[in-house]
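pasting Glucose-6-phosphate 1-dehydrogenase for the record, 503 residues
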Amino acid sequence: MSQDKRSRSSKLADTLGSDVDFVLFGALGDLSQRKLYPALYQLDRENLLADNTRLLGVARQEVDVEGFRSRVEASLKEYIKRDELDAEVVERFLNRLDYRCVDATQVEGYAGIREWRQGAGDRPMVVYLAVGASLYGDICRHLEDSGSLDESARVVVEKPIGHDLESSDEINDAIGAVFPESRIYRIDHYLGKETVQNLIALRFANPLFGTQWNQNHISHVEITVAEKVGIEGRWGYFDQAGQLRDMVQNHLLQLVCLIAMDPPANLDADAIRDEKVKVLKALKPFTDDMLGTDVVRGQYIAGTSDGQSVPGYLEEPDANTASHTETFVAMKTEVSNWRWAGVPFYLRTGKRMPEKLSQIVIHFRQQPHYIFDPDQRSLAANKLVIRLQPDEGIALQVLTKDSGLDKGMRLRPGPLHLDFNNAFAKTRIPDAYERLLLEVMKGQQYLFVRRDEVEHAWKWCDSLIEAWQERDEPPRRYPSGSWGPVASIAMISQDGRSWYEDY
Ligand SMILES: NC(=O)C1=CN([C@@H]2O[C@H](COP(=O)(O)OP(=O)(O)OC[C@H]3O[C@@H](n4cnc5c(N)ncnc54)[C@H](OP(=O)(O)O)[C@@H]3O)[C@@H](O)[C@H]2O)C=CC1
Ligand SMILES: O=C1O[C@H](COP(=O)(O)O)[C@@H](O)[C@H](O)[C@H]1O
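structre below
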């Protein structure tokens, strides 16, 4: 066996161990092209796809296998950096692909999928639903009725699952009628981000933080997920959803869970998910009287992005000019339990902000007795800044003595800084979908969302949506390229605080 082959085999034994048959519904859609093929290619390049792993693309368009492979090759060329495109790996990857034209709503077409699976032996089947959630029920049922499934089959579903608790229950029931929970992988791609997983390591591997992580030592928590992009031509989807359903119900609440949860007994999927559910259950529900003080909804108007003029939300292609859908939301919430009582969690997320920035800031309390210059009192607290993207890293703001003979005991804030790109320079930070696809192939569920998590997240969001609907107020306008409505600054400053924008 060559050295190369040997290292490939041992890597597989550590990570993957078996071949998989992917059946990808929505094989010609945006998600597949932008995220899934590039992620699978990267896994192949890293020798993490076992030799006989195959993928069957499924969509309604009439394309032959060669045409399908050319489309996938074009996606790789568009979304993979040039120096990461290896012709040999591209060819190996494309040879794994096959295609069937199937209308997912018609059971007749599924015979093609069943035939493709014949002779698969004990190779597990992973059905990936990169289609709208309204098709999930039909697809699961038809896969079963056509005899295409076996005990090995896992299903991967994308967010959003429904638009409220009731509709998510219907979708989850339809999937659950065919697949047991242990074989359902609900994606929240934020859980696949390297820095998001790092929250678990940071909190539970460092006693320094473990002992301080509660209302005795932390005064408040900020989570910002700012996007520079607008709605990217997705008016039809986005206008029905809005930023609360698109980003808060899933990604931001998962971040809240990872920050607020108690230590799990171990790293098993259910141990982690049990703790996350406790956080979701403890979130303080919204009532009408909190809308004026604790929540701000915004919608972007025309402005600039990277120095270029960009249209407002209501001027986007296909826009309905009467829409009150929010593209920004800021809120103050609380996890009402022993650990976090009285600690506000300030969340904000919006589209068309000045930059792409996802970061969590943990603000520690001040010392009980302050002995330095009274003018510097506002400096005297530590902050832990966890930068999720871009420029992934962690910075702990500490206070030291300012140097110089004339400075006396003046304080100077400065970061103890861990920049992931510098610290781990030789390691490429993988895209979230690479990690998630790998975990699906390994049959591990800890990075996927369990049904009760989805339900409790919806229950909390529904309380806010109902309060909004009763008030029926238009969102506040904010210019593209700004940090959202001024009211979101007022919301936090009423507590004597401000959004943290340094790093
Ligand atoms: N795009 C993204 O960045 C993200 C997407 N998602 C979710 O992923 C899913 C897919 O999104 P996206 O890729 O953007 O959607 P697209 O509209 O770009 O793609 C949908 C795909 O589904 C296929 N399709 C639609 N109807 C049928 C049918 N009846 N039978 C078989 N195939 C069908 C389409 O092909 P054809 O018309 O040929 O049948 C196409 O390949 C959605 O649930 C979305 O919410 C989640 C996070 C991010
Ligand atoms: O799920 C979604 O996420 C993206 C933001 O993801 P990121 O990895 O770029 O932070 C968001 O733009 C999209 O509207 C939403 O559906």
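The longest strand covers residues 218-226.
Residues 1-14 have pLDDT under 50 and may be disordered.
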